[in-house]
Amino acid sequence: MKQRIILSLMVFAILAFALFGCGKGKETLYIFNWSDYIDPDLISEFEAANGCRIKYSTFDSNENMLTKVKSTSQSFDIIFPSGDHVSILRELGLLEELDRTQLSNYKNLDEGLLQKASSFDSGNKYSIPYAWGLTGLMYSKQYVPEEIVASGGWNILADSFFDGKNKVTMLDDAREVIGAALIYSGYSINDSSDEAMTKATEVLKIWDRNITQFDSDSYKNEVQDGTTWLAQAYNGDALQQMADNPKLGFILPKEGTSLWMDNMVMLKSSKNKDLAYKFMNFMLDAEIAKRNSEYTQYATPNQAALPLLGEDFMANPLINPDPAYLEKCEMINYLGDRVRRIDQIYEAIKLN
Ligand code: N2P
Questions:
Q1: What's the predicted TM-score (pTM) here?
Q2: pLDDT at 102
Q3: Cβ-count burial of 129 within 10 angstroms (0-12 exposed, 13-18 middle, 19+ buried)?
Q4: Is 181 in the same domain as 285?
């Protein structure tokens, strides 16, 4: 009798564990995204609507994301790489091929942007465009004289006004940093020829006299509090800060810049694919995409969301620049092994 009671208790414990996991009683979705890149209300709304929990972690560069994804024992369900890193993850065999029948809102995406996205994910098989944007220069109007910014180009980074002041930062991103030097020097952002690399190195050595750190996250608060006066910055991140502080400015450099698209992908190792599809589909809803764009200040590839976005957002040239400016911008492409040369130059500059 005693044995039967013990056996029943064990069966009950095993069933309870299987049903409710570690006693938390809720399915958990693991998401890994860039910092400041989602409206937090959307996370709680999704949790409430689906009776689940989202464990949300953030990264501040594609490189850090990739290192974590490759090394961590904890598996993420959904991550948000930029285009070139979709290609890398795809080549590493880490991505789940998406089943569009589970994504009823996929039709909301802009056809033209999907075509662009197929340059890094042929046939759009593994990734869903999430947001796109441009990289520029954010500055403090309180400290940087207007005539310096008025020159309007990447070489503001070399201005002698900043000499010895320790007030300038660039992103912690090899492709963005070398890319800015390439564009400034008249080369393609994807040119890794010896000639282009030599020129980019020369330019970076000059900029580096003013650069105090390569950082993709803390600059946002530092330009606010005056620790940094000029920072290479992503447009939406800068606009989020500018919303609270009229003493901040942002320019898209006149020579052109990088235009990137970040994407939702599901890892093959995801243990919760059904819930992951629900989340992706939720983010593809037009009203949700509109709210998310208004919060993050990044442009959306969700065409159905565009008519819902206010005039202020749509007409903002720092979010949606005119076609003539976009002509001067380039997507950062996957370069395969050739990226090593870019990484080497970047690491050498950082150590300098
Ligand atoms: C969001 C950063 C945008 C990502 N904080 C740049 N690809």
A1: 0.90
A2: 98
A3: buried
A4: no
Query: What does the alpha-carbon distance between residue 309 and residue 332 come to, in Å, rounded to a whole number?
Result: 27
- Please give the number of the atom of ligand 1 that sits closest to the Cα of 135: 6
Q: What is the distance, to the nearest Å, from the Cα of residue 84 to the centroid of all Cα atoms in its chain? A: 12
Does residue 11 have a pLDDT over 70? no
Pocket test for ligand 1, best of 33, 35, 37 (most atoms within 8 A of CB): 37
Mean pLDDT of 331-344: 93
Q: How much is the mean pLDDT over the chain? A: 93
Together in a domain, 119 and 25: yes
Task: Output the CA 58–ligand 1 centroid distance in Å.
Answer: 11
Query: What does the alpha-carbon distance between residue 179 and residue 190 come to, in Å, rounded to a whole number?
Result: 7
Q: Name 120's Cβ contacts closer than 8 Å, sequence gap at least 6.
A: 83, 84, 86, 87, 127, 331, 333, 334
- pLDDT number for residue 24: 57
Question: Distance between CA 128 and CA 109 in Å, rounded?
Answer: 9
Q: Measure 37 CA to ligand 1 centroid, in angstroms.
A: 7
Residue numbers of the domain that contains 233: 133-259+328-351
Regarding whether 184 and 332 lie in a shared domain, the answer is yes
247 with 115, same domain?
no
Closest C-alpha among 249, 61, 258, 254 to residue 151: 254
> Counting beta carbons within 10 angstroms of the beta carbon of residue 290, is it exposed (0 to 12), middle (13 to 18) or buried (19 or more)?
buried
Residue 26 sits in the same domain as residue 143 = no
For residue 255, is pLDDT > 60? yes
**Residue 2 pLDDT grade (very low, low, confident, very high; cuts 50, 70, 90):** low
> For position 109, which CATH number holds?
3.40.190.10
Nearest CA to ligand 1 atom 2: 34
Task: Give, using CA atoms, the residue closest to atom 4 of ligand 1.
Answer: 34
Could you count the other beta carbons within 10 Å of the beta carbon of residue 127? 27
CA 258 to ligand 1 center in whole angstroms: 12
Per-residue pLDDT, averaged over 93-122, amounts to 97
